[in-house]
Amino acid sequence: MAEANQMTEHNGASQRQMIEHFAKTIDPALNRRSGKVFYSGRAAFSRPTDLYLIGLNPGGDPTTQAAETIGSETARVLTQLPDRWSAYSDESWQNRKPGTHKMQPRVLHMLRQLERDPRETPASNLIFVRSRRETNLAGGVDELVDQCWPFHEAVIARLKPKVVVCFGQTTGGQLNRKLKANARPIAQFVEKNNRGWATTAYRAEGQIVIVATHPSIADWTNPEADPTPLIQEMLQAN
């Protein structure tokens, strides 16, 4: 029993050390702004992984959610929330039951199909600052991406994900720029509907970047719009 307790304490300490390393890469100038960095907890950011999920930025209202700052939300993940936690499965969005609001079930569907636990899958946003819409991002997308990039650079370097899934074209374009992905796609899924939106995979040095449709708009639970088989194919690719 004593050995088991010591092992648990060791694992917990290792998880804290790893996530604290990542937290230190967040620009302190962002800490008082409304937003968040971590969409999964200490366990997800504590070991190498083959999958990393990145959205563009936190949604919501930076005025009514002014108290939910990047600094306070980061501290909550580091010190208060369970090791195994996911914003997609465990957080209530707009007072809905956890895991049920709009894009949450779509992301959870994808992870179930991939046999991945959301609480063990690192997830974040390319930009940490909250806005109602992309066009409301004060400071400009490129500048904010550059300001937040040291965090993602550290995560990718330490966790070495094989596949980075980007929610939406803006996020994917920025990741391709930062990771110097090849401009020629290596695989693509086109929705089987009148809209015909595409999810496209690109090869970067060390990673495959998947520029997916955005689950806040595209219903990934619908087989006609589900990019999961492409993601699975890329995770299994050599």
UniProtKB/TrEMBL annotation:
<protein>
    <recommendedName>
        <fullName>Uracil-DNA glycosylase-like domain-containing protein</fullName>
    </recommendedName>
</protein>
<dbReference type="InterPro" id="IPR036895">
    <property type="entry name" value="Uracil-DNA_glycosylase-like_sf"/>
</dbReference>
